[in-house]
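hi! just following up on the protien thing from before. the input was this:
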Amino acid sequence: QGNVYGQYVTKITGNILFHSVPYTKRDASSLEYWEYDKLGTAASLGCVRLKVEDAKWIYNNCANGTKVEFYSSDNPGPLGKPTSKKISSYPDYLRNWDPTDPNSNNPWHNYKEENNDKNKTKNEVANETNENTKNEVKNETKDKTKNEITNETKDNAKNEVKNEINNQAKNEVKNEINNQAKNEVNNKIENKVQNKLENKVTDKK
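and the predicted 3d structure came back as:
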């Protein structure tokens, strides 16, 4: 579609597919590298774009009828959210290829990563650092918020239990006082009745 091509295409349903990042030609050295840098974000028309190695694994290992589940959650699961190399800042001969493509002509196979540090500009390094810092702050903020909510919930629960215990204790004390008061009143009434009876008996005698 749109005169682009993909490697290791596996149909999910309808026109929704698993496939590599698009190529401008039927040629593994014509990768849309600017699209490759978008891996992990919503960038397609509905398909699931993958690194070549991942698209190839699905293509070779998932038989027809394999169930695919889509879900939306902040929790990426036990394996974490996949990551991929950002390649737009690399020389053309490299960035026109998917770094994970097993093709024997792929120049990434013979490239030593440390050489690329010289090719990065100060701005790229600064931007990358800022992005990492932002992510760290976001994650730290989320963790703090979760902990605060957890602690607040625990404190509320403790206070509710304390209040319930206090109320129970107050009610028990009130009941005990009321019972004692009732008993005292009953005893006084019984004593008065008994005294009157005794006086009447004495008068008769």
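The two ends are 125 Å apart (CA to CA).
The first strand starts at residue 10 and ends at 13.
cheers
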